[in-house]
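Now for one specimen:
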Amino acid sequence: MNIIIAGIHTGIGKTICSAMICQKLGFDYWKPVQAGDLENSDSIFIKKNVSNPLCTIHKERYKLLTPASPHYAASLENLHIQRKDFKLPSTENNLLVETAGGLMSPLAENFLIIDLVEELNLPVVVVSNNYLGSINHTLLSVAALKQRNANILGIVFSGDEFPSSEAYILNHTKLPLLFYIPTIPEMSKEAFAKLAEEITINL
């Protein structure tokens, strides 16, 4: 099974969620667009922290220099990101695709992350995090995906637990909880391997 990891916002735990799935289930990993911090990219994070030998990391389609919205970062390099640019890497393994930013982050004029999700047409894992406004962001993200008839597998909560918000989100969206990702004090292959042994991923 191939899946897409989509987030309600930027910096909410998509890459850690991806690492957990790759470590626990041995999925391949692909980040189509990386904007900025190329020496510490999400692909490099997966390489540093996932020890499952089944996980192959596939090369990004775009590696942009500026840590900004992909459409702006691409414009600074005179690049134009287009729908036709994205084809899934060839693999016989299950593939995990991690998106950039939130669902409404722009890749180009009239081309949003949610358009890429629709184009790739894979089941979606929604990653949420508990902060002021996260209920609103999560419900809006799920509503946008449902409007596109996306197959939403469920929700992953990342970071410190907040049962009241989580219960509201799950009840309102009628989506299953796939798993929790607790705050990880120190990132390492050993930490991810230990946590992967302890959690159950309901995919």
Summary: The mean pLDDT is 95. The chain has seven helices and eleven strands. The radius of gyration is 16 Å.
